[in-house]
Amino acid sequence: MSNQKLIFDIETIGHDFDSFDEATKHSLTRWIEKESSSEEEYAVALEDLKHGLGFSPLTGEIVSIGVLDHHKQEGVVYFQAPEAKLEAWEEGRITYKPMSEEQMLKAFWDGARQYQHFITFNGRTFDVPFMMLRSAINGIRPSKDLMRGRYLYQHAPDAVHIDLLDQLSFYGAVRRKGTLHMYTRAFGIPSPKDGGLDGDQVGPFFKAGKYKEIATYNGRDLFATSALYQKWEEYLQF
User: Fold this and answer.
1) Does residue 68 fall inside a structural domain?
2) What is the pLDDT of residues 145-173, one digit of tens each?
3) pLDDT band at 3 (very low <50, low <70, confident <90, very high)
4) 96 backbone φψ class: left, alpha, beta (φ>0; ψ -120 to 50)
5) Residues 11 and 64 sit within 8 Å (Cβ to Cβ)
6) A Pfam family in this protein (predicted)?
7) What is the structure's pLDDT at 83?
């Protein structure tokens, strides 16, 4: 079997809180209602909750999926650009393609069939479960089980998921896990944040129609993750 390696990363946004039905709003806010000691404290907690809706596939969606062939250093970023008349373009060995969330997920799982190793940063606790649930919500069956077991020896040979945050924190043994930015800084790798955007700003950027900026940020994430994987493979993989 060949040893094809795919780097991937997603960007997400939360849905508008006011668009939810009353039962959903109550489910989301019942804990902050109990824990807030004043109206001011509740208002602050509610704003924090609204900003965090993009962390759940039940209250958010995927606006960008980036994939990079580790060996070829070529990839594609699929991204949402609703109501924007954008055509696909190429930049820095990445092709950028606007499409819907459903189309992005179909394209990802179709391409995943060609690969055996999948590399992410924090993919086990965020990217992969988010993608799998959003796929099911969109009526799409994932082509690979990238959540099978936590440890590498438990994975299927054609679906080995190497989560670099797991590996570099030794499955949580280190006291502070660190972010992708912190790891790239420590290893002398250009950070994806160097372009003036980070994950916390994806929602506001999307709302402002800055779809290209989100897509290119996703592309920078891919190369940073690939370079970090190279460091792990060379010095820490056993």
Assistant:
1) yes
2) 999 999 999 999 999 999 999 999 999 99
3) confident
4) beta
5) yes
6) DNA_pol_B_exo2
7) 84
- Find out whether 101 and 80 touch, Cβ atoms under 8 Å: yes
Domain of 222, in residue numbers: 5-13+61-235
**Model pTM greater than 0.85?**
yes
Residue 19 lies in a domain: no
| HSE-CB of 194 using CA atoms within 13 angstroms | 13
Instruction: Return the structure tokens found at 228.
Output: 């970090």
Based on the structure, what is the number of domains in the chain?
Answer: 1
Query: What size, in residues, is the chain?
Result: 238
In a domain, 28, yes or no: no
- Return the exposure string of 171-200: e unless at least 16 CB atoms fall within 10 Å of the residue's CB, then b: eeeeeeeebbbebbeeeebebbbeeebebe
Does residue 144 contact residue 109 with C-beta atoms inside 8 Å? yes
Q: Is residue 117 part of a domain?
A: yes
Residue 114 sits in a domain whose CATH number is 3.30.420.10
Tens of pLDDT, residues 116-149: 999 999 999 999 999 999 999 999 999 999 999 9
pLDDT band at 2 (very low <50, low <70, confident <90, very high): low
Q: Which helix (H) or strand (E) covers residue 231, if one does?
A: helix 211-235
